[in-house]
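Hi all, long-time lurker, first post. I run a small reading group and we've been trying to get comfortable going from sequence to structure in the token notation. Rather than ask abstract questions, I figured I'd post a concrete chain and ask someone more experienced to write out its structure so we can walk through it together at our next meeting. Sequence below, copied exactly:
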Amino acid sequence: MSKELRRFFAYVIVFFCAVGYLFYRYFYLNPVTDFHKEILVAVAFAVLSTCVMGIYETIKCQGKYFWISLRCSLFIPNKETYVSLSYLMRIKLSGTERYFLIKGSKVDQYQPVGGVYKIIGNKDIYKEWEAHPKSDEKNPDDLRFFAKAKYIPEIIRWFKSRKGRETGVWREFYEELLETKIVSRKNFKTIRAEYLCSHENILSKQNRFKNEQYHTLIYDIFQIELSTNQFQELKEMMAKDTFTSQYAFVTKDEIEKECFNDHKTKIGQHTKFTI
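-- Answer (accepted) --
Happy to help. Here is the structure in token form:
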């Protein structure tokens, strides 16, 4: 349980103690001494005010994550949860309203360039969070794993801190577009990526994997700002072929429908987060 949640419960307990005293004072205590009238009642009301402000500030500071922490700690602490912390790149050709997607390596669909972040340094998620990888996972440093729900608030706080993990997008861009020779090394020696937003799907009911009961998925969305040469290269690729076995240039409407090529070819559902 996080220190914020412990503080919240401490405020709640003290609040009800103060309410209990005031109830006893006004409805049961007879006779009432000056000590109760002049001191304890004033202290009780001061405590009530402090607790109300403390509870409010605790909830306000954490926002929606407070209720997630409460749910994880009290109601589903030991439920198996699949966690995936990743990033997607929006590569849009301005003036054409086309989005650049690549063929998925694991699933038969087209999707944005991107993938899961990796751990950097000595962070041991398997010890700290009792995590374990997917049965087919060959990269233990990937932030794609199973953990008990009680660790989800801590996992999210750590991820948001940006410590001990990748924060850039170059690795996946290089692996998916340069190593595969989809784009040229000449024009794509570097890229400029602007963070746009994050899409979160926390503790949704799922059963895609064995024993899994919940999903927690976070996607960071980045806009790739194309240089003149990069834009020109992609534009020439699109003029030659809008759809190949490696990549596709699709419209917003096709992404929303999750298919293109006369409904014959699938687009990954998560691609919608990039439009």
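A couple of things your group might point at:
The two ends are 37 Å apart (CA to CA).
Residues 34-62 form the longest helix (29 residues).
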